[in-house]
From TrEMBL:
<dbReference type="InterPro" id="IPR003660">
    <property type="entry name" value="HAMP_dom"/>
</dbReference>
<dbReference type="Pfam" id="PF00512">
    <property type="entry name" value="HisKA"/>
</dbReference>
<keyword id="KW-0812">Transmembrane</keyword>
<dbReference type="InterPro" id="IPR036097">
    <property type="entry name" value="HisK_dim/P_sf"/>
</dbReference>
<dbReference type="InterPro" id="IPR005467">
    <property type="entry name" value="His_kinase_dom"/>
</dbReference>
<dbReference type="InterPro" id="IPR036890">
    <property type="entry name" value="HATPase_C_sf"/>
</dbReference>
<dbReference type="Pfam" id="PF00672">
    <property type="entry name" value="HAMP"/>
</dbReference>
<dbReference type="InterPro" id="IPR004358">
    <property type="entry name" value="Sig_transdc_His_kin-like_C"/>
</dbReference>
<keyword id="KW-1133">Transmembrane helix</keyword>
<feature type="domain" description="Histidine kinase">
    <location>
        <begin position="244"/>
        <end position="456"/>
    </location>
</feature>
<feature type="domain" description="HAMP">
    <location>
        <begin position="183"/>
        <end position="236"/>
    </location>
</feature>
<feature type="transmembrane region" description="Helical">
    <location>
        <begin position="163"/>
        <end position="186"/>
    </location>
</feature>
<dbReference type="InterPro" id="IPR003661">
    <property type="entry name" value="HisK_dim/P_dom"/>
</dbReference>
<keyword id="KW-0472">Membrane</keyword>
<keyword id="KW-0418">Kinase</keyword>
<protein>
    <recommendedName>
        <fullName>histidine kinase</fullName>
        <ecNumber>2.7.13.3</ecNumber>
    </recommendedName>
</protein>
<dbReference type="Pfam" id="PF02518">
    <property type="entry name" value="HATPase_c"/>
</dbReference>
Amino acid sequence: MRVRLLVVLTVLALAGVAGFAIPLLVTSAQERTQRFVLSRTADLDRIAALAVQATLTGDTGTLREEIVAHHGVYDEAVLVTDARGNPVVVEGLDPGDPGVRAAVEAALRNQPTALPDVLWPGHSEPLLLARPVGTGTGIVGAVVIRALPGAAVCDIVVAWTRLAVGALAVAAVAVGLAFLLARWILRPLARLDAGIRSLAAGAADTTVPAVSGPPELRTLTAEFNRMAETITASAEQQRRLVADASHQMRNPLAALRLRLDVLARHVAPEGEEPYAATAAELERLEELLAGILELAAAESRSTDRSAAGAEPVERVDLAHVAADQVAVWQPVADEAGVTLRLCPGGPAPAACPASEVAQLLDVLLDNAIRHTGPGTAVQVRCSPGVLEVADDGPGLAPDELARATERFWRAPRSAGTRGSGLGLSIAAQLVSGHGGDLELSATPGGGLTVRIELPA
């Protein structure tokens, strides 16, 4: 936008300068041309008057002196003829030249000479100016001057140079003003854009100073600040509500767990089945509460990290952490009849704390072992910045892949298994907080592949 606005303002400024300078250049050339033509017309009139006098007296001395003086001053050739076109006084012109003869004949017929409207820079051709000697039917001869426009053209070039320098100076000032105007308009937009990005990243106390720019932008900035304050306060209240509610539920659940454990010794045989169902529901509730707390903590860490900006992040070898977590989950996989294997590979550096990589693997391995079923295999692969967990279980349908990271969503066939539906949501939030990406896809041949990409 900055470039487009600068281009538009600069073009408008240059167009304005050109619209002022071009007519001025033309006017200056026309004015100097008019002075040149008037000067040479006056010379013609003066020489014609002397020619009339010479015709009456028969003395051409004064006429010749005037023509020689004119030639000496302007270096311009002059020819005076009688009524038959015969030369009377010649200074530098060839009476036999076709152009000169044509000018003499036109003057004897009392035809006006075509005069130039304007002389342009670069014009170097001499001009043949002619007029009759005498008036009306009393034409007794003709005067022809070969006028040289060089001095007038030089004056025009000098005037144009001065005007061009002035126009360039004005254009430079106009372009500078265009830059200042663009800066005045765009600086508030840049601050507003930074504020929007900061608010989208979850930064608290995001405000934009509304101290410059057009009134409309200052009003927009003030409205944004009010919106940012409302959104920040609402998000903080929501996080506190989730965290406080989860913490407040822990005490009653802990007391309920204690009483249920004490009650286990007094359950009659006919009450063992209801008791087991109650214990399973309590375990599910505890797992759900733990998931909510983990999700709230992941969102909080993601928000804090985004608000803090680019800070040094702990680097970790994904392969090393994966080896540790595979060893931890190996007994669980063996008990479930699932083959768990870490594919060998080289170092796999990534910018992410080791504790969060371990948490991601816990979520992915727990889901894979729990939902693939006996006789299946789970593979963990690592490469720089990439962590993959793939299984050959039942997998997910295309429409289920799109919903798998939604909170509390569970596949219909998983209704009979434990779980809160928050695991992949927590993983997605953790990965997003590090600027990474979590992608679910079908494993070739059947199954589910979870691919996590982290900054390397």
